[in-house]
Specification:
Layout lengths: L1 H24 L11 E3 L9 H12 L20 H7 L11 H4 L19 H12 L5 E3 L11 H12 L4 E2 L2 E2 L8 H9 L2 H7 L16 H13 L20 H12 L20 H7 L11 H4 L26 H12 L17 H12 L18 H9 L2 H6 L17 H12 L6
Parallel strand pairs: 1-2
Antiparallel strand pairs: 3-4
The chain binds heme C (HEC) (2 copies).
Length: 440
């Protein structure tokens, strides 16, 4: 009797095993090989799945809760070549009809990656389309020459981050609290060694890119050379070289203004992108703000602040920010203008000094740059005004100011939808509050 049962069990297991192995190696139809064809030389005309597409999918789609193997949302898994071919709806005859391409950046609920994660850039979308058009092959290339003679952030480092990292580490998705598009944060990660340590897979640090292959030696060297030479860490400060009074800095002065006045929900944040304009970070500002370096009058980002067209007659439309939001002050417009005149660079400086904190010279300038855009006008954020000294004292006294900027539980983190203020800026508020909020 016992023997009969175990024999029957054995047969069952055998049949089950046959069935599962069978379904594993022979899915309905085609078998896709996860081993890529590797070319020794990268051709500029070819898009390579392993180099160009998979890292993007890994950092923006095959993430936990979405299209990783464990979740497989809507039965779509995008972790490797075979999975992409089986579940990504690739259409070789009509590449543009491929489901995986059609859902990118469509806007609304259908859009992938879903907001608040940043949409794929046009270049990234085109790369996917080209790859499908070239036959959706499982291809890879290894450039034997690693050219690190002239490493710049824009040409060398930013493209690596775009492919491997921003999906998990930009404003829409700050995994581990890290936003690699924020230069002050990046400078800190360089200074404390975790940027290089994590990509080199040093012991004690979490290996990055998470869930993907290690970067190539060439990519790691490129980032290492840039991190060593970059001016971000120069000058002894944590957040860049010290501020030069004649220079306008994008990360310190322009971006925070745009984030609090323009990149707000329903307007030019990553989720809305009104009229295709997104003003959340350097790349999107320069690209969609139609910035012409050196020429403010031909830069829409600047001319629209006065509602005038400047040299560009196509911009004779409404003023931004639109009423009832307050228009930029002349001083704020000049910041944008000077920054463009000076070449519209992605620059940053260490401009925070806590030796002599005063309300007028230290606290309120931070509020004007980072907060006022949302906390004035007819409908201030959360019903809270931050227009002047007495407004600030009110939120300082009830604890909401410190709770929100220090991201304490029970408070809405501020500035909303932007990176936390720098340690030095937080210290400025803390000192002013601890000193009894003097009106100095
Ligand atoms: C799939 C998402 C994902 C991708 C892609 C990714 N990261 Fe991360 N990263 C995370 C998460 C999540 C954490 C926080 C891990 C934790 O705290 O457990 C993290 C942490 C880090 C840290 C802190 C490490 C430490 O030990 O303190 C650094 C630095 C970092 N990432 C850099 C990068 C860089 C550079 C890339 C691209 C080469 C990258 N990440 C790609 C998700 C990702
Ligand atoms: C992009 C718009 C935006 C920016 C920029 C912004 N806020 Fe807010 N703030 C809001 C909104 C909206 C609320 C209401 C709560 C919510 O929706 O999160 C709010 C709420 C608050 C609150 C109440 C928090 C609570 O938990 O009760 C305080 C205090 C505050 N903001 C201070 C600031 C300060 C200080 C800054 C600048 C460092 C700032 N905000 C920048 C939109 C913004």
């Amino acid at each position: 009797m016992r023997k009969g049962i175990s024999q029957a069990m054995g047969a069952l297991i055998f049949v089950y095993a046959l069935f599962t192995w069978g379904s594993c190696t022979h899915p309905p139809g085609i078998y896709y090989d996860n081993k890529p064809m590797v070319s020794q030389q990268c051709s500029v005309d070819t898009i390579y799945f392993q180099n160009d597409i998979l890292p993007l999918l890994n950092s923006t789609c095959a993430v936990s809760g979405c299209h990783d193997a464990a979740t497989g949302k809507h039965n779509v898994v995008l972790t490797d070549y075979a999975a992409v071919m089986k579940t990504g709806g690739i259409n070789l005859q009509n590449p543009e009809e491929s489901k995986i391409y059609r859902v990118l950046g469509k806007g609304g609920d259908e859009s992938m990656p879903p907001p608040p994660a940043a949409a794929w850039s046009t270049e990234q979308q085109n790369a996917l389309l080209t790859w499908i058009g070239q036959g959706a092959l499982n291809n890879a290339c290894t450039n034997t020459v690693c050219d690190t003679t002239n490493v710049t952030f824009k040409n060398n480092v930013d493209p690596i981050f775009q492919t491997y990292c921003y999906g998990c580490h930009s404003a829409g998705n700050t995994s581990g609290g890290i936003d690699l598009t924020n230069f002050s944060q990046l400078a800190l990660l360089i200074d404390n060694g975790s940027l290089l340590g994590s990509i080199r897979h040093d012991a004690g640090l979490i290996p990055m890119p998470q869930g993907g292959n290690k970067l190539s030696d060439c990519e790691i060297n490129t980032i290492a050379i840039w991190a060593r030479d970059t001016t971000l860490t120069g000058g002894g400060g944590n957040t860049g070289s010290s501020c030069d009074l004649d220079t306008t800095y994008f990360q310190n002065q322009v971006l925070p203004l745009l984030q609090s006045n323009c990149a707000v929900s329903g307007c030019h944040d990553a989720a809305t992108r009104k009229e295709g304009v997104q003003l959340t970070d350097y790349n999107s500002v320069v690209k969609t703000g139609r910035v012409v370096a050196g020429n403010p009058n031909r830069s829409k980002l600047y001319t629209i602040l006065s509602g005038g067209g400047g040299d560009d007659k196509s911009t004779q439309d409404g003023i931004m920010p639109p009423p009832p939001r307050a228009a930029f002050t002349t001083e704020q417009k000049n910041l944008v203008k000077n920054w463009i005149l000076q070449g519209a660079k992605d620059n940053v400086c260490d401009g925070c000094d806590t030796t002599q904190v005063s309300f007028k010279a230290s606290v309120f300038p931070i509020v004007e740059t980072y907060c006022l855009g949302c906390h004035n006008g007819n409908t201030p954020g959360g019903g809270i005004y931050l227009r002047n000294y007495s407004d600030l004292v009110a939120v300082a006294k009830n604890g909401k100011l410190w709770g929100s900027i220090n991201h304490e539980t029970g408070y809405s983190p501020m500035p909303k939808n932007a990176s936390k203020l720098s340690t030095c800026q937080l210290a400025t508020f803390k000192i002013w509050i601890d000193n009894g909020t003097p009106n100095n």
